[in-house]
Amino acid sequence: MFESAEIAHDIDKTTFEEQLPQLRTDILNAQFELIETKAFPTILLFSGMEGTGVVDTLTNAYTVLDARHVVVSAFDKPTEEESERPRMWRYWRMLPPRGELGIYIGAWYNAPLTNRILNKSSIAEYKQELERIKRFESMLASEGALILKFWLHLGKGEQKKRLKKLGRSARTSWRVEESPWGGSKRYQEVKLAAEDMMRRTGTDHAPWIAVNAANRYSRGLTILTTVLNAINARLARGSETAAPVTAPVNVPILDGRNVLTALDLSLQLEKEDYKKQLARYQDRLNELLSRKKFRKRSLVLVFEGNDAAGKGGAIRRVIQFMDPRRYRVNQFAAPTDEEKAQPYLWRFWRRLPRQGDVALFDRSWYGRVLVERVENFCSEADWRRAYSEINDFEAEMSDAGAIVVKFWLAIDRDEQEARFKAREETGYKRYKITDEDWRNREKWDEYTMAVCDMVDQTSTSTAPWTLVEANNKYHARVKVLKTICGRLEESL
Question: pTM for the complete prediction?
Answer without folding.
Answer: 0.81
